[in-house]
Amino acid sequence: MEAPPGPEPKPGDLIEISRLGYSHWALYVGDGYVIHLAPPGENSESGAHTGLGMVKRELLVDVVGQCFYKVNNHLDHLYKPRPIKDMLSSGIEMVGMEMEYSVLSRNYEHLVTELKYGKAHSRQFREEPKPGDLIEISRIGSSHWALYEGDGYVIHLAPPEEKSEPGAPTGLGVVKRELLVDVVENCSYKVNNYLDHVYTPWPMKKIIAFGNWLVGRKMEYPVLSRNCEHFVTDLRYGNFPSQQREEEPRPGDMIEISHQFYCTWALYVGEDDVIHLAPPGKAC
């Protein structure tokens, strides 16, 4: 367990635990213990499916694991905290209870903010998506994009081999309609209709109807010129720009490709092809 410089937690404090792509939250109750909502499967991961979570009282060091944490009473300026005795007694009464767990509407942050302030609040997502919204999903080294249809479903272009990797080869992608939580998995997302100031969106019903008409179709997936972002911007605006790169490469350009812990380099030769040195154990 690692904690950045800052105040030691006191009973009633909210604890934010930094994990890959999201935060887990707990309420500190004293003597090294916290109360938190463990998602279905006892995994505190943002991509857990809707289902039954369990309220648990556990040692902070066990919940934090190898991650960082900090005290973060981030709503004190908006809401008056409940009396500490009320927070702790309410939390202790809930320990062992199973409750519906929804990434979008009832997650671990909702639980602890309700205990502390009497208000269920979450910053995991900037805003609730509406039908027709573009969803940007943050992944290591890239973003995956989807169109929100409603009722928890999105339409998106899944790259070849169903991997949304920035280095995926040109091939046939598949248009899919899936639950947002299944597409997001352990990542974070946000609503990002970033071109609304440039283009007028199509009518929402037309956007969704056209998206559903494309579900199940296979289409070419050149990462540089027709990726998942091009697909959804075309649905929403009838134009298909992409932010995945700052500029279009030209033959002779050097391409830097970001991986989880390192970068590789390639020479762009045109028509979406590159020349690069494959490390040992990789197919050329």
From TrEMBL:
Domain LRAT spans what residues? 14-124, 134-244, 254-284
| InterPro entries assigned | H-rev107_PLA/AT, LRAT_dom
Q: A Pfam family matched by this chain, by name?
A: LRAT
Keyword hit for Hydrolase: yes
Mark the transmembrane ranges: none
Q: What does the UniProt keyword field contain? A: Hydrolase, Lipid metabolism, Transferase
Q: Which top-level group of life is the source organism from?
A: Eukaryota
Q: Which family does it belong to?
A: Belongs to the H-rev107 family.
**What protein does this entry describe?**
LRAT domain-containing protein
Species of origin: Pipistrellus nathusii (Nathusius' pipistrelle)
